[in-house]
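Holo model, uracil. Inputs:
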Amino acid sequence: MRAYDIIKKKRDGGVNSREEIQFLIEGYLKGEIPDYQVAAWLMAIFFRHMEEEESYNLAEIMLESGDIIDLSQIEGEKIDKHSTGGVGDKTTIAIAPMVSSLGLKVAKLSGRSLGHTGGTIDKLEAIPGFKTDLQVDEFYKIANEVGIVVAGQTANIAPADKKLYALRDATATVEELSLIASSIMSKKLAVLSDGIVLDVKVGSGAFMKSIEDGRNLAKIMLSIAKRHNRKAKALITNMHQPLGETVGNSLEVLEAVNTVKGTGPKDFTELCIEISSHMADLAGIISYQEAKKKLIENIEAGVVAKKMKEWIKAQGGNEKVVDNPEKVLSISKNTVDFKAKNSGHVNYIDTEKIGMASMYLGAGREKKEDSIDLSVGLKIFKKLGDKVEKDETIATLFISQNSNVEYALDLLDQAYLIQEVIPSYVSNDIIFDVLE
Ligand code: URA
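Output:
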């Protein structure tokens, strides 16, 4: 077999066999096939795409290149959840105690922030004492005793994806749907949960800009999951504006805490209840409708907040954050307001730019090695369709001496389109579609 023939076949619109994909990926990992040949193959895929069979094979080959995380030592139904990435997305922190209150087990590996998107592990570390680097035994113990555990990814999961992703990043081939689906699923399938709910975000703050692209990505990921005998559902959700009202680590924990106590923002609360109810339904524990009803009751009765406290305590964090978040969390006292230059209505938000503004304040990383400041970020007061008066505050920036405030303000200025006209259509739906 020759790399040249595999590339040529894809270039000419052919379908690569499992053996051919395996030959390329394994050869690349071993250093026997050079970057330039794999880069050429990726570009051929970018223009010719992959069939579902090829995406499935690529996902499996990449997942088999690394560790498999066995969750069988954890009793009960374990449903994983994955978000394709957005701005202000703190769902895991609120969803974990929500689904736990319904009787599901949460045993999850999460990531850190990169670029305009945040990461659950950074956010959890904003809770004083919270440990995310758990030993395997501790991970199982907390899951069994408390029902919730969320840890950072220390295992060597899908190293082939890591290497291929870096090459895609350098060759402008990240955006191809079939490659994104294989990449995400190689990591998700490596954790042996009983099922997965995929939160596929679409809009100005997401990879997928249109509902159609979101649906197409979801379909490929679902087909990979099903062929791998894993139960899965996909929700196509709104990322045309930041989720909730905060972006930045401590600020987002504050919002997640308020949400489990029933005082969170409406859009974020609704999304968390939807995803949690679909997770419970997928587990087969309780129907989607019953789960929704029960979750609202559990939030009102304080059951979800109690679960959150137990979880935080079990991972070494200060559980008082649930009762007194503003006292426990470190949120910068230095603030600057971003004000409207003219009156009108919010017609459009470039959400990715808001994520970038938060990154330049110090809440996120431009490069993997960058350090972050958990106390900085943004609180947003104006969302799509809202009326704004000249000089009214659109967002408050929580800053530190290392924040690039000027650039962040400039990005916010570019992000908000405020016009006199009332927008004829505002995309305020939380969920656009559910696919199974
Ligand atoms: N997230 C991933 O893990 N991989 C992609 O290719 C895109 C988003």
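Residues 266-283 form the longest helix (18 residues). Residues 3-48 form a domain with the Transferase, Pyrimidine Nucleoside Phosphorylase; Chain A, domain 3 fold (CATH 1.20.970.10).
Archived with the compound record.
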